[in-house]
Design goal:
Layout lengths: L1 H38 L2 H8 L17 H7 L3 H8 L15 H8 L2 H10 L13 H7 L3 H9 L14 H8 L2 H87 L1
Helix pairs in contact: 1-2, 1-3, 2-4, 3-4, 3-5, 4-6, 5-6, 5-7, 7-8, 7-9, 8-10, 9-10
The structure holds 2-acetamido-2-deoxy-beta-D-glucopyranose (3 copies).
């Protein structure tokens, strides 16, 4: 009896230990991946993501940064690339609304920006203050990153909550080169837009013309068919009455000839 109780006790302890360890390890791995990404410890990130990526989107730290956010902030380009192979959600935003691309635009390398864009990061997401990655690259005076973002569709018309476009921010910061660059791209965007607009309007007009033309042709053909059917009917009935007259005439003639004969 005593030994049975002891055995039960041991079993309970063992279960508690196992459960504890597993939950503990789980809580730790999320943080471990975050910490390794923060440090830029490529080997550790590789080890922690080998065959399992469940911690890649877990937020940590003061502003709910994901491992990707923190690696971008700390300019660990290789770690960012490795984390991307884990298929993270790059649209996740920290407490202040920064995506990994925001962090990269302000703190990271051009190589990192290209990797994020190639992965499919949306370049026009706005943070809690309405700023896009383009705004942040401008504020950081990072011309090559500004150029890359523009090349990949960054919208120069988006205004922050301070009602500033990225171009306004550049002028305010006194970044003449960046300001010119944005102006050129705005112009290109405008021309592209108008060209697209003209083409779509033209396409629309052509469509309308083709439809109208088809309708006209259909109307013409159907009225011609109608007219010809009408005349055919008219001719038919004329023919009919002519035939009838001919029969009457013939009868009359016959009667007269009989008459003549009788006389
Ligand atoms: C980030 O790292 C790259 C080299 O990988 C360096 O050229 C760049 O200046 C760094 N960015 C910042 C903001 O320190
Ligand atoms: C903007 O365009 C002008 C004229 O096309 C060109 O001379 C200038 O170098 C461009 N500026 C930038 C910053 O690309
Ligand atoms: C481009 O066209 C869209 C509608 O097609 C319009 O809302 C937008 O203002 C245009 N962009 C520019 C730069 O004019």
């Amino acid at each position: 009896m005593r030994s049975l109780l002891t055995l039960r006790y041991v079993c309970l302890c063992w279960t508690a230990f196992v459960v504890n360890t597993v939950t503990h390890v789980n809580a730790d791995t999320g943080k471990a991946l975050y910490d390794a990404s923060d440090r830029g410890d490529l080997d550790e990130v590789k080890r922690l993501t080998e065959g399992k990526c469940e911690d890649v989107d877990k937020p940590h730290g003061a502003y709910n940064w994901t491992p990707l956010n923190i690696a971008a902030r700390e300019n660990h380009t290789q770690v960012v690339k490795l984390l991307l192979s884990c298929k993270p959600d790059v649209e996740l935003q920290s407490t202040v609304g920064w995506t990994a691309l925001h962090d990269a635009a302000y703190y990271g390398s051009l190589d990192m920006i290209n990797s994020l864009i190639d992965y499919g990061a949306d370049v026009n997401i706005q943070d809690a203050r309405g700023r896009t990655a383009l705004h942040l690259a401008v504020i950081g005076n990072r011309k090559e990153i500004v150029r890359t973002l523009l090349k990949h569709g960054a919208d120069t018309r988006i205004t922050s909550k301070a009602v500033e476009t990225a171009g306004d921010s550049a002028e305010k910061g006194g970044f003449k080169d960046i300001s010119n660059l944005i102006e050129n791209y705005s112009l290109i965007q405008l021309i592209k837009n108008e060209t697209e607009d003209t083409i779509s309007r033209l396409r629309h007009s052509i469509f309308v013309v083709v439809i109208s033309f088809t309708l006209v042709i259909l109307t013409l053909v159907s009225s011609m068919i109608g007219v010809s059917l009408y005349f055919r009917y008219k001719l038919g009935s004329m023919q009919h009455s002519l035939d009838r007259h001919a029969v009457v005439f013939q009868n009359e003639e016959n009667r007269q000839s009989v008459h003549i004969y009788e006389n």
